[in-house]
């Protein structure tokens, strides 16, 4: 059964196409605009106590939609972003926000009718492919494997909530940059090199460049106060780490990019290992 799950996850890597250059098709847009949009969506998620997976799924929908379009104007970004969150929340949440609530948080920039119209446009553009493996999905898998002490209960979380939210903080900073496959590398920072290679099946040479590229972001995170577990009214304590929270990721991103610009590493994400390099 576990091998079937693994193969299914790998197959989705091929089916769901992403590109770090998705914004290149939109001359009037800048990477900072995407970062600001994601920062706002993260705030919305926290306001409505939405799950982390809801946020990362919305990010996936947004990036893939932008990859399928060309010359999108900046005044459309908020509508596209809130629509992506509208769709992802209906997939992930038991009680998703009502469309009236999402229109309200846009402060009049997005009308209910516009969100509904954009929903249909986005679903068609995505070909109704709405079940990708997100960055978060892979991160949880690798942390679970590394923390496993009961092989008969692989599907029951066995990792530390504190470790989990610290790694998601790294993911949060990097998700604001150009799209890159962080499914593997982010988890590296919580594990020793030997343990990481053992549990992912990848050779160190396949990820070394990406790890070095991410190092400035990890260094930046170390300068900030560690992420803390929070309590949410109606959320059970065993699920609190799964709720998306907002911190000043934009400031962290600027600091990390300054560190990165001083290094010899390129500013653009390295090419990730192909699915063929992963154990089948």
From TrEMBL:
Disordered: region residues: 261-280
Keyword Transcription: no
Similarity section: Belongs to the cyclin family. Cyclin AB subfamily.
Organism this protein belongs to: Sinocyclocheilus anshuiensis
SUPFAM superfamilies in UniProt: Cyclin-like (SSF47954)
UniProt key word Lyase: no
Superkingdom in the source lineage: Eukaryota
Protein name (Swiss-Prot/TrEMBL): Cyclin E2
Sorted UniProt keywords: Cell cycle, Cell division, Cyclin
Listed InterPro entries: Cyclin, Cyclin-like_dom, Cyclin-like_sf, Cyclin_N, Cyclins_cyclin-box
GO terms of biological process kind: cell division
Limits of the Cyclin-like domain: 39-124
Pfam families assigned to the protein according to its UniProt record, in alphabetical order: Cyclin_N (PF00134)
């Amino acid at each position: 059964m576990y091998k079937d799950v693994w193969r299914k996850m790998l197959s989705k890597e091929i089916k769901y196409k992403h590109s770090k250059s998705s914004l290149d098709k939109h001359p009037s847009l800048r990477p900072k605009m995407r970062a600001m949009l994601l920062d706002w969506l993260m705030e919305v998620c926290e306001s409505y106590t939405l799950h982390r997976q809801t946020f990362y799924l919305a990010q996936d929908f947004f990036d893939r939609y932008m990859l399928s379009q060309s010359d999108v104007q900046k005044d459309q970004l908020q509508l596209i972003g809130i629509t992506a969150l509208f769709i992802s929340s209906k997939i992930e949440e038991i009680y998703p926000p009502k469309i009236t609530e999402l229109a309200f948080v846009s402060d009049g920039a997005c009308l209910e009718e516009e969100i509904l119209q954009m929903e249909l446009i986005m679903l068609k553009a995505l070909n109704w492919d709405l079940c990708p493996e997100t960055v978060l999905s892979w991160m949880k898998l690798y942390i679970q494997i590394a923390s496993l002490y009961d092989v008969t209960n692989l599907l029951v979380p066995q990792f530390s909530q504190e470790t989990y939210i610290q790694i998601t903080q790294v993911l949060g900073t990097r998700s604001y940059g150009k799209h890159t496959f962080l499914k593997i590398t982010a988890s590296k920072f919580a594990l020793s090199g030997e343990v990481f290679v053992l549990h992912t099946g990848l050779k160190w040479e396949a990820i070394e460049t990406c790890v070095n590229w991410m190092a400035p972001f990890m260094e930046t995170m170390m300068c900030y106060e560690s992420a803390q577990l929070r309590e949410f009214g109606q959320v059970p304590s065993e699920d609190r780490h799964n709720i998306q929270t907002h911190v000043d990721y934009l400031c962290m991103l600027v600091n990390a990019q300054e560190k990165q610009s001083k290094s010899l590493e390129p500013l653009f994400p390295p090419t990730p290992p192909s699915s063929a390099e992963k154990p089948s």
